[in-house]
Q: What sequence folds into this?
C-alpha cells in the first residue's frame, strides 16, 4: 500500500493520505495520531500530539528537526569558538573497552582483526609493505546517533509508523529503505552543554534520576544559555564516571572504578515532559552521556522507552547516547562558556538505523 500519492498538487498538500482515508491537518500536526493500544496512558498520546512534527517540512521529509540547522545556526557555532581548543566526545572503541553487556540483543562490542601484516606489495621484500585490518561492531555500540528509522510504534490496521507517517514495513532485512542514517549528509551546528549534574551541585546524578524541564532550565541558567533554533543540545548527567576513562578521576576522590552495571542500570535520563521543552526550543538534536538517554527504569510500567518514541517517531529528532562530556564540562565550567561549534556528522552507512560518531566540540 502506498502511503503517499505520487502526485501532490499544491491544493492537496494540506492533507495526508492514511490508508483509504484523507485527513486534514492542524498546522503541521496531523489530526490522527499514531494508533496505540487502549492500555497506553493518555499522558503519552497527548504529548505525542503536542510535539509531532509530521508534515512540518513536507510529506517527503526524512531528516526531521535537522532541517532546523541552517547557516545562521552554524555561524552561531563558529562565533562560539574563542581559543580553538578541541574536545573529542567519543568513547574508545575496542573489544576490551566496550560497554555492551548483552542487554540489547545483537549489540556487540567492536572486534578488530588483522587481515594482513606487513604484506609485501612488490617483488622486492625490502620495499613497500601494507598492513590491513577489519572491524565488526554494532552501529550503536559506543558513541552514536540513533537514526529516525531506529524505532516505530502503532497498533493500527496498517501496522506501525515511523517519523512523518512512513510505514514501519519500510524497514526490512535489507535495512531502512526510508529514513536511513545516510540521509544526514552533515551535522554541524552550534552545540550547547546543559550540565544538569553540575547545576545541581553534583558529580553525577542519582541512579534513575528523572531529568525534568526545570532541570534543563537550571542548566541553562548555570551556563548563561538561551537555546536557539537549530542548536544541538548535549545533556550531562555525569554517568560516564562509571567508565573510568583514561585521565578521569574516580567518584568522590576515590580511585577510578570501571562499573558497567552502574553505567547501564539504573540510569538518570530525560523524562516525557522534556519532549515539549526540546520541541518548543526547536532543538535540532540531543545527545547524552549515558546508555539509554531517557530515565531507566522508565517513568511508567505501561510505557517502555516513551522518550525514544516521542523524539524519533513524533518529532523526528535525532538522538545520541554514550557521549563523553566530562572533559568538555570541566572546560566550560572553568571559563563559563557553554557553547561551541559541534561537528557530529554520522558515517554514511546506506540504509543504517544509526551510526557511530566521534563528535568534536571546538571552543
A:
Amino acid at each position: 500500500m502506498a502511503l503517499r500519492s505520487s502526485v501532490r498538487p499544491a491544493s492537496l498538500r494540506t492533507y495526508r493520505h492514511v490508508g483509504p482515508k484523507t485527513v486534514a491537518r492542524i498546522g503541521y500536526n496531523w489530526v490522527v495520531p499514531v494508533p496505540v493500544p487502549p492500555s497506553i496512558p493518555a499522558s503519552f498520546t497527548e504529548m505525542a500530539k503536542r510535539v509531532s512534527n509530521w508534515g512540518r517540512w513536507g510529506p517527503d521529509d526524512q531528516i526531521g528537526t535537522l532541517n532546523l540547522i541552517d547557516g545562521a545556526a552554524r555561524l552561531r557555532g563558529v562565533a562560539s569558538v574563542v581559543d580553538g581548543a578541541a574536545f573529542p566526545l567519543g568513547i574508545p572503541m575496542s573489544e576490551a573497552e566496550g560497554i555492551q553487556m548483552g542487554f540489547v540483543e545483537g549489540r556487540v562490542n567492536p572486534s578488530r582483526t588483522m587481515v594482513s601484516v606487513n604484506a609485501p606489495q612488490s617483488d622486492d621484500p625490502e620495499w613497500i609493505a601494507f598492513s590491513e585490518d577489519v572491524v565488526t561492531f554494532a552501529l550503536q555500540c559506543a558513541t552514536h546517533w540513533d537514526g529516525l528509522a531506529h524505532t516505530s510504534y502503532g497498533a493500527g490496521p496498517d501496522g506501525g509508523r515511523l517519523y512523518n507517517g512512513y510505514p514501519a514495513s519500510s524497514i526490512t532485512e535489507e535495512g531502512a529503505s526510508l529514513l536511513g542514517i545516510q540521509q544526514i549528509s552533515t551535522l554541524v551546528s552550534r552545540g550547547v552543554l546543559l550540565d544538569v549534574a553540575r547545576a545541581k551541585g553534583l558529580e553525577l546524578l542519582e541512579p534513575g534520576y528523572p531529568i525534568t524541564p526545570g532541570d534543563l532550565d537550571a542548566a541553562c541558567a548555570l551556563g548563561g544559555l538561551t537555546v536557539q533554533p537549530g542548536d544541538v543540545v548535549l545533556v550531562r548527567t555525569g554517568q560516564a564516571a562509571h567508565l573510568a576513562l583514561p585521565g578521569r578521576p574516580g567518584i568522590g576522590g576515590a580511585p577510578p572504578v570501571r562499573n558497567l552495571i552502574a553505567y547501564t542500570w539504573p540510569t538518570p535520563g530525560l523524562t516525557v515532559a522534556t519532549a515539549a521543552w526540546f520541541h518548543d526550543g526547536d532543538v535540532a538534536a540531543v545527545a547524552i552521556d549515558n546508555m539509554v538517554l531517557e530515565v531507566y527504569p522508565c517513568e511508567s510500567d505501561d510505557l517502555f522507552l516513551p522518550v525514544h518514541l516521542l523524539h524519533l517517531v513524533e518529532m523526528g529528532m535525532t538522538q545520541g547516547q554514550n557521549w563523553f562530556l566530562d572533559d568538555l564540562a570541566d572546560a566550560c565550567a572553568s571559563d563559563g562558556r557553554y557553547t561551541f561549534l559541534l561537528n557530529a556528522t554520522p558515517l554514511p552507512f546506506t540504509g543504517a538505523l544509526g551510526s557511530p560518531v566521534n563528535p568534536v566540540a571546538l571552543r
Residues 41-92+141-362 form a domain with the Glucose Oxidase; domain 1 fold (CATH 3.50.30.50). Helices lie at 42-51, 71-79, 196-199, 213-223, 260-264, 274-280, 306-315, 326-335. Residues 1-24 have pLDDT under 50 and may be disordered. The chain has eight helices and 18 strands.
